[in-house]
Write a structure and sequence with these properties.
The complex is a heterodimer of chains A (296) and B (180).
Chain A lengths: L2 H24 L4 H36 L4 H35 L10 E9 L7 E4 L12 E4 L2 E9 L4 E5 L6 E6 L4 E9 L2 E5 L12 E4 L11 E9 L8 E6 L8 E5 L13 H10 L7
Antiparallel strand pairs in A: 1-2, 1-12, 2-5, 3-4, 3-12, 4-5, 6-7, 6-9, 7-8, 8-11, 9-10, 10-11
Chain B lengths: L13 H18 L2 H7 L6 H12 L2 H15 L9 H20 L4 H27 L10 H29 L6
Helix pairs in contact in B: 1-4, 3-4, 3-5, 3-7, 4-5, 5-6, 6-7
The chains are: A alpha+beta (296), B mainly alpha (180).
Chain lengths: 296, 180
């Protein structure tokens, strides 16, 4: 390589790096910025797919041949569990039918059936600064930006970057993440924000509000991003002693993020609860029982 | 000592070093594998940083900068950090490493590990959160809460410990005849 090029190459690369950083800071969804984010995502996802495939094959061999020790006892136990679960399913079906009847009586709008897309976690951000996972579903699979991501345990996060067949999901525990929620016991409206390192906290909750240890916090759906009624976390710490208007509280997420594998991605945008569609008499009864959440 | 020969006087041709630029992204992807995150729990080396250090000491400057750019570009693969930010960080790593190596005539295992520790600390715990704070329009102290600092410090520490065996392995892989 000519000496002149050797001199200019570091300078050129330095300026290119600066341009990429600057483009992302000005317009995170811009063309140049997207080139910098989606190109490595698309280029490296086959490696992640490969690693996952090898790991699953090894796991499959382990489960097929070595893990069968004690399978008979486990089988008997699982049959009993299944019988109980069947009975519960019958009971739940009855509860669901009753709920549907009551909902239609209250003239609440029947929700559209929400489409969910199943996916798997391909990789974690190994760095300490962000709580991000890469999943194996992307724009061409029907994932939209800002789509909510859940699993059976509760709310996981939302889609923040999209490639063709991969996407990055910002977990609710990230410091730049916030979710509108309710304390399930008393319907107090709260804002749940990430504290990093797998922790959640309550923001802007007045000291006078009734938040107790063990309270379950669920999504309200009022933010228009996340579906309502998904578990967020359990209150593990409440501090009302310090200065300021708001209490300090920490939550333990209901989702076990360290073993997060299978997830569901919401296809359509969730409908927000529309107070104006309620009749005045129904609204009065509803508001008496459930105080209207504060406007943000 | 295996690392006694490390100095700027041993450049390697590009043809022998290109696998390094593949190895960096692959190692980053492996570190991001879901189970790895569970088992390592923050105790993991920063592969891109280690490879950049190796490039900075073992190659000509233009190749070291090119390597830093490619590795930095792919280091952002799993992160939400702006593309180019890790390139800047690693390019500064090359600049400082080469400057110090020239100034101190760096040789031997202990000075190298200390350099990795100091450099990793300065870049990983100082420059990186500051740049992130700057580009995300958020105060950098938000990135510096206690748990993340502990995890970042572990990364720096493990990276410094990994210098000797990692460099020796790379030398055996890519410079079999020159390896001491």
């Amino acid at each position: 390589m000519p000496e002149r090029w050797k001199l200019f190459l570091p300078l050129f690369l330095f300026l290119l790096a600066l341009a990429l950083v600057s483009a992302h800071a000005r317009a995170p969804q811009g063309r140049l910025s997207s080139l910098g984010t989606t190109t490595p995502l698309a280029a490296l996802s086959p490696i992640s797919f490969g690693i996952n495939w090898v790991a699953e094959e090894v796991e499959g061999i382990w489960r097929s041949y070595f893990y069968l020790v004690g399978a008979r006892e486990e089988n008997a136990r699982l049959r009993q569990t299944l019988a109980r679960a069947r009975q519960q399913a019958v009971e739940m079906e009855e509860v669901r039918a009753t709920n549907e009847r009551l909902t239609s009586l209250l003239s609440l709008r029947k929700r559209e059936p929400e489409g969910w897309l199943a996916g798997r976690v391909l990789a974690w951000d190994p760095g300490p600064w962000y709580q991000v996972v890469v999943i194996d579903q992307g724009a061409q699979d029907g994932v939209r930006p800002e789509a909510a991501v859940v699993n059976v345990e509760g709310l996981v996060g939302r889609v923040v970057e999209l490639a063709a067949h991969e996407a990055k999901v910002l977990l609710i525990t990230d410091r730049s993440s916030a979710v509108d929620g309710f304390i399930q016991r008393n319907q107090v409206n709260v804002l749940v924000s990430g504290l990093g390192a797998g922790r959640l906290g309550l923001e802007y909750t007045r000291k006078g509000e009734d938040a107790r240890l063990g309270d379950l916090v669920v999504t309200s759906g009022l933010d228009g991003v996340f579906p309502a009624g998904r578990a967020l976390g359990v209150v593990t710490q409440v501090d009302k002693a310090g200065l300021g208007l708001f209490l300090r509280a920490e939550l333990r997420p209901t989702v076990e993020f360290s073993s997060l594998r299978e997830i569901l991605i919401q296809r359509s945008k969730p409908q927000t609860f529309d107070w104006t569609t309620l009749g005045s008499d129904v609204r009065a009864v509803f508001e008496k029982k459930n105080p209207r959440p504060r406007a943000r | 000592m295996a690392l006694a020969r490390y100095s700027l006087a041993a450049p390697a041709p590009l043809a022998r070093l290109w696998p390094l630029l593949v190895l960096g992204p692959v190692l980053t992807a492996v570190t991001g594998f879901p189970r790895a995150g569970l088992y390592l729990n923050g105790w993991r080396p920063d592969w891109a940083f280690l490879l950049t250090l190796f490039l900075a000491l073992r190659t000509e400057s233009w190749l070291a900068y090119l390597g830093a750019f490619v590795l930095g570009f792919f280091q952002g693969y799993l992160s939400l950090a702006p593309p180019g930010l890790f390139c800047l960080k690693l390019a500064l790593g090359v600049l400082i490493t080469r400057g110090l190596a020239r100034k101190l005539e760096l040789k031997g295992f202990l000075p190298l590990s200390l350099l990795a520790l100091c450099l990793g600390g300065a870049l990983g715990l100082g420059l990186e959160p500051w740049l992130l704070g700057l580009t995300q329009s958020q105060p950098s102290y938000q990135f510096l809460n206690e748990p993340t600092l502990i995890i970042a410090a572990r990364t720096v520490f493990v990276s410094a410990l990994g210098v000797a065996p990692f460099f020796r392995l790379l030398d055996r892989l890519f410079h079999p005849k020159e390896s001491p």
